[in-house]
Write a structure and sequence with these properties.
There is one protein chain. Helix 12 crosses helix 13 and helix 13 runs antiparallel to helix 14. By secondary structure, the chain is mainly α. The chain has a three-stranded antiparallel β-sheet with strand order 4-3-5, with no helix packed on it. A two-stranded antiparallel ribbon has the order 1-2. It is 69% helix and 4% strand. Strand 1 and strand 2 form a beta hairpin. The chain is rod-shaped, with a radius of gyration of 47 Å. Bound molecules: zinc ion. The site of zinc ion has 9 residues, from loops.
């Protein structure tokens, strides 16, 4: 209220002052004579004041116009101005819009749309590191490999995007089956980003496939260091690689180095059967029977396996069957109930021609867990005991269709391997072979044994005793061990 009053008062004062000033000016005599282009103008004081105001306004307008001209000139020259900034912002907005739409299209599986959007984003944004990635992925999706590869190559140029480029081309080469180039690219990608888990895995697989065991061990070490592999798994896989290395060295004829590598593999993973066997053979080669026995026993206790028994036999190749039976007690004393132990003792007893003892060793294994192997052993025992031919044939006929017992099976694809290998020959997985019984249907014959009597004669019931003694049980046992 008071403020309004003050404003009104100020207005009245100003108007009064202006009126008074104007009256004073009009009453003042004289004036000013201005000479413009030969003509004289005489200005009264009030006209002078008006003229001055007009002049000030004109100068102000002139200056503004000049600034505008300068701005326009700069804009035309390409300098950043408010106008260009306005247009830039507009382009940027359109560019990001296209980019996000492109990403949406990619996520929803519309490759062609994503390509179009990527091109549009590239035009507006001029930021190839952003748009190239979209282009490459969209090109992959639409099956345009050429564009994808070209775009990945563009990504190689920038430090920030080089890894993505290398990885992209590497994946293409992998899909093409060009493993040599893929491996070089994987090595490059690994050098750029040693902690990248996928790169580590790809490189490791390629190195294992190419039998580059030393390189693979290095990569495995990097995996451990970057924390993407538990320590025990690392140890086991390192052992597998060391063993593979040892096998390769051995095939090159360097027995001493191979021996060391095998012993190293066995030290890393005492459960790894082929490593134990190879290390033991190394010790046997050195004449160190005690170490060979120790290594084999340790592994046998973890996982009884015929290969270990075979290597254990090699520790003393010239001993008699009785001596062998006695010595093998060291190996088997901790695993007397294991089927592998039962079959091993039975085989040793057959070799020693003590058939009743062999039968005792087998126990009820042919009833509880019949396999081709223990049924064949039973046939050998029956033959050794002098059973009728029909009885022997009865066991052998059963053996023909019985499960084969434990095998080296890939945990990943269930493929059965005749011998242990670091990588599965079927699916290429690394360290997936384990010694176990395949699914029951594995060896079923389509017609069962119904056809067999026509080939082997009518098999007798297997419990019938007979008087005739057949002498070549040893030959049979021999072929069985193999
Ligand atoms: Zn496999």
């Amino acid at each position: 209220m008071l403020w309004s009053l003050i404003k009104i008062l100020a207005f009245v004062v100003a108007v009064t002052a202006l009126t008074y000033g104007g009256t004073q000016l009009m009453e003042v005599d004289g004036g000013m004579t201005v000479d413009v282009a030969g003509q004289e103008f005489t200005l009264s004081p009030i006209e002078m004041v008006f003229g001055l105001v007009v002049l000030v306004v004109a100068v102000w307008l002139g200056l503004k116009l000049l600034a505008l001209c300068v701005a326009t000139f700069k804009f035309l020259n390409g300098d950043e101005t408010a106008i260009s900034r306005y247009f830039d912002r507009n382009r940027e907005r359109k560019g990001y819009e296209a980019l996000s739409e492109g990403m949406m299209a990619l996520a929803s599986g519309e490759g062609h749309l994503a390509m179009t959007k990527a091109a549009r984003a590239d035009k507006y944004l001029q930021q190839p590191q952003l748009t190239n990635l979209l282009t490459a992925q969209a090109a992959e999706m639409t099956g345009d490999r050429k564009t994808a590869e070209d775009t990945y190559k563009k990504l190689l140029a920038d430090d920030k995007t080089r890894f993505v480029g290398v990885r992209g081309i590497m994946k293409q080469k992998l899909a093409d089956g060009d493993t040599d180039t893929a491996m070089k690219l994987a090595e490059k990608a690994f050098a750029l980003k040693p902690k990248h888990e996928e790169t580590q895995d790809v490189l490791l697989r390629l190195q294992a496939d190419a039998s580059d065991w030393a390189g693979a061990r290095k990569t495995l070490g990097a995996k451990l260091k970057s924390g993407s592999l538990p320590r025990d798994v690392h140890k086991r896989r390192d052992a597998v690689l060391a063993l593979s290395e040892a096998r390769d060295i051995l095939s090159d004829g360097k027995t001493i180095e191979a021996r060391e590598a095998a012993i190293e593999a066995n030290r890393l993973s005492p459960d790894l059967i082929p490593a134990a066997v190879m290390a033991a053979r190394g010790y046997i080669g050195e004449g160190n029977a005690r170490y060979a026995t120790r290594v084999l026993t340790k592994t046998w206790n973890a996982q009884p396996h015929p290969d270990i028994a075979a290597a254990f036999a090699e520790v003393a190749p010239d001993e008699s069957a009785e001596e062998r039976l006695k010595r093998f007690k060291t190996l088997t004393k901790a695993t007397t109930d294991h089927p592998e132990t039962k079959m091993l003792i039975a085989e040793l007893q057959i070799a020693a021609e003590d058939f009743p003892a062999a039968k005792r060793a087998l126990g009820d294994l042919v009833g509880t867990d019949p396999t081709a192997r223990n049924l064949t052993l039973m046939a050998a025992i029956e033959r050794g005991e002098g059973a009728d031919d029909a009885v022997v044939r009865g066991w052998l006929t059963k053996a023909l269709t019985a499960p084969r017992g434990p095998q080296w099976i890939c945990e990943n694809c269930q493929h059965i391997h005749p011998s242990w290998a670091a990588t599965c020959s079927n699916c290429g997985s690394f360290d997936t072979l384990s010694w176990k019984t395949p699914p029951a249907s594995e060896v079923a014959m389509p017609a069962g044994t119904e056809m067999l009597p026509m080939i082997v004669g009518q098999p007798a019931e297997v419990a019938i005793p007979a008087a005739e003694i057949v002498e070549d049980a040893d030959v049979m046992e021999e072929s069985e061990v193999k």
